[in-house]
Please model this.
Amino acid sequence: MYDLETRQRALALVAQGRSLNAVSKQTGISRYAIRAWQVRLEPAYATTDCPRCAPEPQPLANSTAYSYLLGLYLGDGCISRLRKGVYFLRIACADAWPGLIDDCAEAIRAVRPDNSVYRVQRPGCVMVTGYSKHWPCLLPQHGPGKKHDRLIALEPWQQQIVDEHPWEFIRGLFHSDGCRITNWTTRMVAGERKRYEYPRYFFTNKSDDIRKLCFDTLTAVGVEWTTLARGSDPFNISVARRASVALMDAHVGPKY
Model:
């Protein structure tokens, strides 16, 4: 007998396009067993009801974790359909940031506490993955194609959560598609050129809609920001003023 997480991991490998033979060799599980799990998905992905699917939608139990997860999803996440109405959420987290990988897994687990969360190692990153029937209703920004090629707008209930937990949303955005770096410049002081270093935050995303969600939320919490163009494309949001960087350090911080 294999536990739920083992079955989910094997089926996730199949969903990534690998053959049953390849998955069997990697996991040590017979092709017969994997094929049987593909047919009988309901027991493997049993889940609790979704507060958004109820006849009268209810507030989410952990809106703080949801706000962070929403930011992560808009940055580096995607939702794919497996079959029979089962979906899996994947968020790419670089190997360089194990703390981010843990935080991402905890956020998924907090939003869907009765669904398993596991990690699939890929070259240079970990795909933090969770299965649920309800990811499309919990993250209605899901759709075909790349996010920057389609409209991304928050539902009123999502905007309310972001308004209540703006820093968690900002933290998710910057932990996915952002960074904290140290810039430097030189100045002439008393005839001598001296080097000065200062911290700076960047957020980079091709989607105009996602960048607008980012800078609107930054403005709401009092962070000053500017847009920097890469060539003719204004894909970068920069936070460099000392007071604003201090706010970001207090509520967001670098990846770890």
